[in-house]
Design brief:
The chain has 162 residues and is mainly alpha-helical. It has one domain (7-157): dinb family like domain (Four Helix Bundle (Hemerythrin (Met), subunit A), Up-down Bundle). It contains six helices and two strands. The protein has a two-stranded antiparallel ribbon. Strand 1 and strand 2 (128-130) form a beta hairpin. The chain is globular, with a radius of gyration of 16 Å.
């Protein structure tokens, strides 16, 4: 914690710190390790999580906040292709990280250009929500998955976050 910030910058810093923690948790692993599944019947893997979080960023920032209609990154709505399609090869890993980084960059640019955290957007089946709620939701999404990521990483090579 540092100097007092405005609300938007405070939320942005919290979200960015979760993104950075996630990236650190995945650092240094091979494609096969990133694609290693948790416990059956789960399809959860760190690589699947990269893909899933790219899709989450895309949906909330490009679709909900920016009002666009981008195609899904990995298959139609309602499928599990972000998890199921996470295979342990370099091309899949490179594509997943490139997509995640592109979506994070778009989100950071969008948020930097919008000061009004009380602005209201149509969030589809979630109804009308304000920007603040979307950002808090993203922070929660990352926090939840960071717990999963820590356990997955520890099961792969014993590394724990501290």
């Amino acid at each position: 914690m540092g100097a007092l910030q405005n609300e938007r910058d405070n939320y942005a810093d919290h979200l960015n710190s979760r993104r950075e923690a996630f990236e650190r948790t995945c650092a240094g692993l091979t494609p096969e390790q990133l694609a290693a599944r948790s416990v059956p019947p789960s399809s959860m893997s760190l690589l699947g999580m990269v893909r899933h979080l790219a899709e989450v960023e895309r949906i909330w920032f490009r679709r909900r906040l920016d009002g666009g209609n981008p195609e899904r990154l990995w298959g139609p709505p309602g499928n599990d292709d972000d998890w199921e399609g996470a295979t342990g090869d370099h091309a899949a890993v490179d594509a997943a990280w490139a997509a995640w980084r592109a979506e994070v960059a778009f989100a950071q640019e969008w948020l930097a250009a919008h000061d009004d955290m009380g602005g209201v957007v149509d969030a589809g089946h979630h109804g009308q929500v304000n920007v603040r709620d979307v950002i808090v939701h993203l922070i929660e999404e990352y926090a939840q998955h960071l717990g999963h990521a820590d356990l997955l990483r520890e099961s792969i090579d014993g590394t724990t976050s501290s």
